[in-house]
Specification:
heterodimer; A: 345 residues; alpha/beta; D-Maltodextrin-Binding Protein, domain 2; seven-stranded mixed β-sheet; three-stranded parallel β-sheet; 12 helices; B: 279 residues; mainly alpha; MetI-like fold; globular; disordered C terminus
Chain lengths: 345, 279
């Protein structure tokens, strides 16, 4: 008798669980984004305006996002990868075309960010933010002004700085220090970069992701390689920090909104993209995340003091020699191998 | 008949969530895809790569630190279990509870807590500074990882040993004493051998998560320190090489199975008789 009861209970539970998972009554938009990369208050605004609910998930690197969309079972309706990843995803036919006629606010996007090499016809992506990679440091802990990547190999600062736990960005730092292109397909140059990173490893305090801001603010780290928006968020709160655009050159990047193949709510996704392109929403986001807007209407709302700062809206001549990542195709396997070996060493 | 039907859901569960994933890992570890056609082909290259010097170093590092963590857990855990077993039953329940309660909290949170304790401006350094001592680096070191492992896995060592000790037939100990054994000999010849099943299951329950962890090393050594778990995580999440990742996982599984076999052999006990052996 007892066994029958248990059996029935198990069956009932299983059925309930399965059906509960399968149920869907309202349009739910699955958004996959970088951590800390949107003002989450706008989800409610969007739901009020359109009745579409946002289900929000985050990732820490482009590679993590790519793997989950490529191999994982979850169907995302929206994601915000960087340029080289978009190029790769277009090449692998992982993206839906975007119908710009459904995005009237697209006119707000500055022409500078359209027709870029990774998506020449703007067919697959809509610009979201842009920025650079540089060094943020605490002027109370570090006396000399910093200009170059060299400080990250200086014994003086051993154990005081963090690198990014992101393979292309960290390899980029070494390649730039050596004076090579960060898109190199030359194996010797990559090997040199690997040696440099291995040599640097004992001096690195930690390889970090989203927690870098906390480490800087708490004084755990005096210096860090960061994306400009992270620097922006820290500097606007704490005066003692400064952000440097290294003279050897660095990465200028673009993050664009895309719709992955397999998305179930393509119309709702277009609606949300249009919502994100609105100047007021763009402002809320720019204000929250600290990165540089691509929206020319939003730009008019931004605090003029931020113009001409290294971290928010740098002058063109400061970043003339800055490079944009491209997709190295199958050569990425070499980057993967180099990074694995650096981390394993 | 009913027994068979009742086991149905569990069978489905095992096949779906244990058997199929293991078969998939086994399959992935033996193939790669052709760059041109995208078709699978059979190859041993994934396994060959596992034995490259860079990765051998990762293996030795992982096994070494896992062994250290296990040894420390045993050294701290065994006396602790003895104290617990000898306690007055009124306090004993509370004491055991105290061991279990922290485990109700999320493992990640507990490890994050250590970051604030060990940090450069953390609690520990604040105390050192209060006494006028120089600041020290605790976080982002091998010691921090070891501490994280011992802290997180200690209950897994204490509880099985405690269970064996508290259920031990007291008359055997009394007999040994009657026959003139001193305390040391009673422990060495009677108590310890009888508690071996607990030691074995505690040791494997600490060694297994310690050798495969990636969270503890990630948080407490800031991604600097690559253990096998980190290497596997990286292959799956960052570099998207599921084939190499699967090969490492298979070897790790064999390593764990081998350790368990050795441990079981050492205890000289049939797991069924031990009663507390969890495996």
């Amino acid at each position: 008798m007892k066994k029958i009861i248990i059996f029935v209970l198990v069956m009932v539970l299983t059925t309930v669980l399965v059906t509960a998972c399968a149920q869907e009554d309202k349009v739910v938009l699955n958004v996959y984004n970088w951590g800390d990369y949107i003002d989450e208050d706008i989800f409610e605004m969007f739901e009020e305006e359109t009745g579409i609910k946002i289900n929000y998930e985050t990732y820490a690197t482009n590679e993590e996002m790519y793997t989950k969309i490529k191999k994982g079972g979850t169907k995302y309706d929206l994601a915000i990868p960087s340029e080289y990843m978009i190029e790769k995803m277009i090449r692998e036919e992982m993206l839906e075309k975007i119908d710009l006629s459904k995005i009237p606010n697209y006119i707000n996007i500055d022409e500078d960010f359209k027709n870029l090499s990774f998506d020449p016809d703007n067919a697959y992506s809509v610009p979201y933010f842009w920025g650079t990679v540089g060094i943020i440091y605490n002027t109370e802990l570090i006396d000399e002004p910093i200009q170059s990547w060299d400080v990250l190999w200086d014994d003086k600062y051993a154990g005081q700085f963090t690198m990014m736990d992101s393979q292309r960005d960290s390899i980029m730092v070494a390649l730039k220090k050596l004076g090579y292109s960060m898109n190199t397909k030359n194996l010797d140059e990559l090997e040199e970069a690997k040696q440099l990173l291995i040599e640097q490893k004992p001096m690195v305090l930690a390889y970090v992701g989203d927690n870098v801001k906390d480490m800087l603010i708490s004084g755990e780290a005096a210096m860090a390689v960061v994306w400009s928006g992270e620097a922006s968020a820290v500097i606007q709160e704490y005066d003692e920090f400064e952000y440097v655009l290294p003279v050897e050159g660095s990465n200028k990047w673009f993050d664009n909104i895309v719709i992955p193949k397999g998305a179930k709510n393509i119309d709702a996704a277009h609606q949300f993209i249009d919502f994100l392109c609105r100047s007021d929403i763009g402002f809320l986001n720019a204000d929250y995340v600290g990165y540089s807007t691509v929206n020319s209407e939003t730009l008019k709302l931004i605090d003029p003091d931020l113009m001409g700062t290294t971290y928010a809206y740098p002058l063109d001549e400061w970043i003339e020699n800055y490079e944009i990542f491209n997709d190295p195709g199958d050569f990425i396997l070499e980057y993967d191998r180099i990074w694995t070996e650096v981390k394993a060493n | 008949m009913l027994k068979r039907i009742a086991s149905g859901p569990y069978l489905v569960w095992i096949v779906l969530f244990i058997l199929i994933p293991i078969l998939m890992i086994g399959f992935f570890s033996l193939v790669r895809t052709d760059a041109e056609t995208g078709e699978y082909y059979l190859t041993a290259i994934n396994f060959a790569r596992v034995f490259e010097p860079v990765y051998i170093a990762v293996w030795t590092r992982s096994i070494k630190i896992a062994l250290e963590a296990t040894a420390i857990c045993l050294l701290i855990g065994y006396p602790m279990a003895m104290i617990l077993a000898k306690m007055n039953s009124r306090y004993r329940t509370i004491a055991v509870m105290l061991f279990v309660v922290p485990m109700w909290m999320n493992f990640l949170l507990r490890t994050y807590a250590w970051m604030t304790i060990l940090g450069k401006n953390g609690i520990l350094n604040k105390i050192l500074m209060f006494f006028g001592l120089p600041q020290m680096t605790f976080l982002y070191s091998e010691g921090a990882v070891l501490l994280g492992m011992v802290y997180n896995f200690l209950p897994f060592m204490v509880l099985p040993i405690y269970t064996v000790l508290s259920r031990m037939d007291q008359s055997l100990i009394e007999a040994a004493e009657d026959l003139g054994g001193n305390k040391y000999n009673v422990f060495r010849k009677v108590v310890f051998p009888l508690s071996l099943p607990g030691v074995v299951s505690g040791t494997s329950m600490v060694f297994m998560p310690a050798v495969s962890t990636f969270v503890i090393s990630n948080l407490l050594y800031g991604g600097q320190y690559m253990l096998i778990g980190n290497l596997i995580e990286q292959q799956f999440l960052v570099v998207n090489d599921w084939f190499f990742g699967s090969a490492i996982s298979i070897i790790l599984m064999f390593l764990i199975l081998a350790t368990m076999a050795v441990m079981n052999h050492l205890s000289g006990n049939n797991p069924e008789e031990g009663g507390v052996n969890l495996w």
